[in-house]
């Protein structure tokens, strides 16, 4: 493997800045969601994905793929949300071994109330304080890194 290629000062500053921004932004948005709506960031993600489907329901494995969550994490979180009346899990009518996760009326009411506030928070914290060029750069960076991660996960990337 050879000697490590340590980050230089500029690279380390960029990397540490990205990590700190990610943590700070997630904490800020989660705190706002909890305070205003009683939802965690994870609750919001689940409800948002369900609310974007035509009938408010999806198979758990599809939801897990959308969220990038492991099966165990998804199952435990859905259980907590189910106990709070935000979602239901029922047998899949076409596959008796499978399940369907469905947004409840209470879950729909909460996501519809939370979404405008969440978007306002995203604008207040990030979007409205970046130039058009910075937004383009941020989008391009995200797309580049995600494509590289997908390639690494598939084992197609060069070492």
In short:
The protein is mainly α and 159 residues long. Helix content is 65%, strand content 11%.
List the SSEs and their pairings.
Layout: H1 9-37, H2 41-51, E1 57-58, H3 60-67, H4 71-83, E2 87-92, E3 95-103, H5 105-125, H6 132-153
Antiparallel strand pairs: 1-3, 2-3
CATH architecture type: Orthogonal Bundle
Q: Quick one: biggest sheet?
A: 3 strands, antiparallel
Helix run count: 6
Number of strands: 3
* Residue share in β-strands: 5-15%
Give the total of domains.
1
Q: Please identify which CATH superfamily we are dealing with.
A: Winged helix-like DNA-binding domain superfamily/Winged helix DNA-binding domain
* CATH fold topology: Arc Repressor Mutant, subunit A
What order do the helices and strands follow? HHEHHEEHH
Anisotropy-based shape: globular
Strand order of the largest sheet: 1-3-2
| Model regions low in confidence, pLDDT < 50 over at least 5 residues | none
Q: Roughly what percent helix?
A: 55-70%
Average pLDDT taken over every residue: 93
Radius of gyration: 19 Å
- Class inferred from helices and paired strands: mainly alpha
Which CATH class applies here? Mainly Alpha
What is the distance, rounded to the nearest whole angstrom, between the alpha carbons of the first and last residues? 10 Å
InterPro entries: HTH_MarR-typ, MarR/SlyA-like, WH-like_DNA-bd_sf, WH_DNA-bd_sf
Domain HTH marR-type: 11-147
Protein name: MarR family transcriptional regulator
Organism: Actinomycetospora chlora
